[in-house]
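Researcher: Please translate sequence to structure tokens.
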Amino acid sequence: MRSPLPRAVLTRLETGRLVVLSVLLGLLVGGLCVGLRLALNALLDLASQVIGYAPPGTPGEGGLLMAFGEALPWGLLVLPLVGAAYAWLVPRDAGDPLTQLVRGYHTRGLGPGLTVQARTLAGTLLGHAGGLLVGRDAPFTALGGLGTRLLRQATRLDAVETRTLTLAGAAAGLGAVLHAPLAAAVLIAEVLYRRFEFEFEVLMPCVLAAVSGYAVYGLAFGFSPLFSVEVLPVPASPQLPAFLGVALAVTLAGWVSLFACRVIPERWTDGPWRPVAGALFGGLTAALAFWSTPAVLGDGAGWVQLGLSGFLGSDALLAGGWRWLLLAVGARLAFGGGVLPSVGVGGLLGAGLGAALGVDPAVATLVGAVAFLTVTLNVPVAAALFAVAWGGDALLPVALLTAGLAHLLSGESGLLPGQVRSRAASAVHTGPSLPLLPEGVRFVARRLPAGAPGTPLDPVLPEGEGSPTPLASEQELYRRGVPSSWQGARLSVLSLPPGVEVVGVIRDGTVRVPRPELRLTAEDELVFLARPDAYAALEGVLRLPGA
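Model: Translation complete:
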């Protein structure tokens, strides 16, 4: 049953399939993002009529550099209802879309179901349009996961492809709304871990999907950057100490927010009290908007644009401080997750500190955004790349220095509860040896009749010895996703090469006994016991097109 094709050709076929699927997924998600932007803009127009206020927007997303209207007292009464609805739609165990993405990857692709994904998309649309601390990028991230689910309806994907393309779909959505596809792809590969580690295996699929998705999105709305920034020169040496001070101050603010968000007990944000807590958060936002400043409404990206343009003075510290408070209070309710809320808080703090220190407001704003985003999401490289995509290449040295310093000082804490410490701690990279098997299950060699030809699994027992012999050293355990052609089939009908047997089926994070009547699904993974040459023959057959 060996494949007649050389291994190099088989590897190219397998790699080429993932490349094609990544590009197709990006095109699909890019088209979906076009429709999502139109729907979101319609919701924002409706919300501005109800509340009586429209915050400034970003030029890349068609926003204007000014606020319109004044927040009406009766209009702000809608915010508690929006907060309750958002808290009800987005379950605590699932979290915001980025948390769902990270947590689902580390549970070997066992992410939320279609119902939870649809509710999360609806909740993020409602929360952002209503002016709460929900980033514009949140519904686009959720849409990327739904795009992967749609792709699975058109073609069969194994468990590894599903995990990889789920991340690639999110990268396509983020790259479109943030107008920075390469930075978004790096963020998805980097945000999975708290330490400075990456998921290199998914980086290229994310890049392909993000670039192709942004190509479709840009054809509809243009390819201008998210923020409009004049060409920035390399920061002058005399201003570097001031920028260092901005980076340190914002890093400290971000680090403190990670501890402040733990003050509220988890039991207050779960169960029947969760919508009540969401309503209280909406009421707090409405109170700050009415009594202090309406700049607390929205994700803050438009106000960051004003800071980049030099229109904000030291008053930006007040708006940034209130947003910091909302982030700390609402983190357990899935408010403030994603990219743009952290950019809003850090950018406003940086703009205010830059005005107080008398340095370039655009550089100070981006330095603050990089520092705060690095601390909350543990993405120093992606944060620096976002700053370069929005502010120009001349900002790269300062952005890298800021991101590295913020990541070094803030440690391994973060806002995303689904992040794991390192690749070694992820279930995706757990070795396929004994920890995969449930307690009490072990392999015992079969005894052969006298004179029967022996195999490495069943060596001939020495005369007089009655106990089972250990497995031969040349046999190994292999862990693999269910091939597309096997999905829906019973184990009893599988055709395996000699020397290969299924010894376990991983489903829902546990290992099950491989009973003959068990039907395989796309989410399952198989544990094989085989000689390396026999397993290589099996892989050769499965890599053939149509297998």
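Researcher: Any highlights?
Model: The radius of gyration is 26 Å.
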